[in-house]
Amino acid sequence: MGFRWYGEGNDTVSLDQIRQIPGVDTVVWSLHHKAAGEAWDQAEIDEQVARITGLSDDARARGVTRRLDAEVVESVNVHESIKLGRTVLGRSRDEAIENYRTTIRRLGRAGVKVVCYNFMPVFDWLRTDLWHPLPDGSTALFYEQAVVERMTPESLIAEMEAGAGGLTLPGWEPERLASFAELRAAYEGVTHEDMYAAYRYFLEAVIPVCEEHDVKLGVHPDDPPFDIFGWPRVVSTKADLARVLDLHPSPYHGLTLCLGSFSANPGHDAVDAVRTFMDRIHFTHVRNIKHFGNGDFTEVGHRACEGDVDTTGIMRAYAEAGYTGYVRPDHGRHLWDENTTNRPRPGYGLYDRALGAQYLLGAWDAFRYAGPPGA
Ligand code: CS2
Ligand code: MN
């Protein structure tokens, strides 16, 4: 069981807090200051791994012995030149790929086992309200279809620049916004087929390095899983996931199966996806969302009956298959005043993710150890 952590000074949650969540062993981390396309330095990687796996003098003095591991990285972001198959934002795709290979090698040396990434054009997940009130008084991430239909990327950028709703989405950091016009032009006319071809080229270059250094790659599905602003998304549906896996036969090329993202299309069956792709799932995010029938959805607590994602069925499928990969709770609600007090990163407060981990572990234990004693 893993827990995402954004790093010292960059997260409202501390490693000491994560250490006290029962069953959580793995910190899911990244070097968040690294721009896509850059090679990560070995020294910075080693320093972060040492921080995660070590114990402070203070903790030692208090008799703390429990260790966390740093085996999962989320994410090493893929530069737009790789997705486009051409030079963009001042970087050629081969240079960006070479840097990706270097980063994988260095992460392997530091003991990292799985690297998550996504292949979405231009930006990461999209929501229209990051602090949407729920009936219990907590807040959660919310997606309103009509708002997205009215939006253009430019209007979204203007809203973020105005800072009005505090809407800063991942992949829309200021340095990316500055180069948005170039990116928009570069994606003009790019098709899904073009993206698959560029994706295959990337895998052919990177997977041999993954094999050599024992680092598995897991692609995160598009969130939400359909095209937005006319840009081609290629990791959305079950058929897409199958096609993506077929791009390279190596077991080192697999999925970070995010069931919340996948289920944002109400026609998708999360449990079926788990069973279908089991042997290529290296890492999985489990979270629940509730649909309103008009394309809108809200994120909710992890328990199955809170929303439309069968989180218990998902854990049952993993338990029955004897899944040995990594899992983490995904976005949580913001609880117990944390959004008004320390204002966590949207979706990444402490409490609801800790509760989510316990729910998932409870389901896992029940299904994993069901049956006669000794079975
Ligand atoms: C994550 C994604 O916060 C989230 O929803 O699941 O942002 C994920 O980290 C990236 O898409 C993977 O590159
Ligand atoms: Mn996810």
Outline the structure in words.
Catalyzes the dehydration of D-mannonate. Belongs to the mannonate dehydratase family. GO terms for molecular function: mannonate dehydratase activity. The protein has 15 helices and twelve strands. The protein has 375 residues and is α/β, with parallel strands linked by helices. The chain has one domain: Alpha-Beta Barrel (TIM Barrel), CATH 3.20.20.150. An eight-stranded parallel β-sheet has the order 1-2-3-4-7-8-9-12. A four-stranded antiparallel β-sheet has the order 5-6-11-10. Strand 10 and strand 11 form a beta hairpin. The relative contact order is 0.13. Bound molecules: D-mannonic acid and manganese (II) ion. The site of manganese (II) ion has 6 residues, from helix 12.
Task: Give the C-level CATH assignment.
Answer: Alpha Beta
Strand segment count = 12
Radius of gyration using CA atoms only: 20 Å
Largest sheet: 8 strands, parallel
Helix content: 25-40%
Going by CATH, the architecture would be: Alpha-Beta Barrel
Q: Name the strands of the widest sheet in spatial order.
A: 1-2-3-4-7-8-9-12
Order of helices and strands: EHEHHEHHEEEHHHHHEHEHHEEEHEH
Distance between the termini: 23 Å
Strand content: 15-25%
Ligands present: D-mannonic acid, manganese (II) ion
The CATH homologous superfamily corresponds to Divalent-metal-dependent TIM barrel enzymes
How large is the count of helical segments? 15
